[in-house]
Structures
1.
Amino acid sequence: ASGDADSAREPLERSLSLWEALRLPLWRARTLWDLARVREAADDTDAAARARAEAMGVFRELGAREARDRA
């Protein structure tokens, strides 16, 4: 997936389901953040913004360092 947004998107989206099934919200949020970067690279800025906002909400809710580091 090096540099190819389309090839990176699918595995990231599959990972979201896995993290949700395993009840690991922090890892799901981290994956959402990465997915936002991929969507942004593919010029899907609306989807990127939604993914980033959802991830940040989880980071804040959990008190994760990402809430501070990525604000």
2.
Amino acid sequence: FQEADHLDQADAAFYLGYMFELGIGRSSSPETAAPFYERASQYEHPLALNALGDLYLNGRGVAQDHAKAFD
């Protein structure tokens, strides 16, 4: 996934974020997941947009920001 992420693959960025957020293969880290979700969101990836919005809504890994959560 990391190799594909370097090729600007939205799916790869989303799944890396997902793995970091849930702690698949390592400890959970929403802080690390957020930039991957951001990158995938730039390509309008629907799951990444939802996941990033959830992080902003709940202030997990990013500063809580309701405006960004619903953007």
3.
Amino acid sequence: IVLPEGERSQNYRAQTPEEGTLLATLSSMPQNADEIVEKSSLPIGAVNATLTLMELKGGAKNLGGGMWVKT
């Protein structure tokens, strides 16, 4: 499910273990991918792929410059 631009999903639920880990790691404060990898202990490839899928589903937002927040 792709949400319209600007619409936030406050009830986003993890659909995979990786999403659950990233939901616990992300916050409303922007973090770059390296910080997320360090905090989550997930490999960079898994972090990037999962964040991209979470963004499409409304669980995360890419602010540009590699910075991510939870939506």
4.
Amino acid sequence: QVKALQNRGEKPSTVLKIHPYRLQIAEEQAEIYTLDEIQEKLESIAKLDVQMKRGEVDKHIALETLILKWL
């Protein structure tokens, strides 16, 4: 949300009603990734979620593998 708001030129502090420290952390993390990278990660997580719920993959191994890909 922070990255999307920043890209639209809005101030996250006025839109999001969260503690200032949490907002600071989110803003720092938003600088690391592009909006496209965030979208790709969310799509990967959603795909993995479906696979887990269908029993197609081992939950622990699949999640660890996904995290390791991102490192």
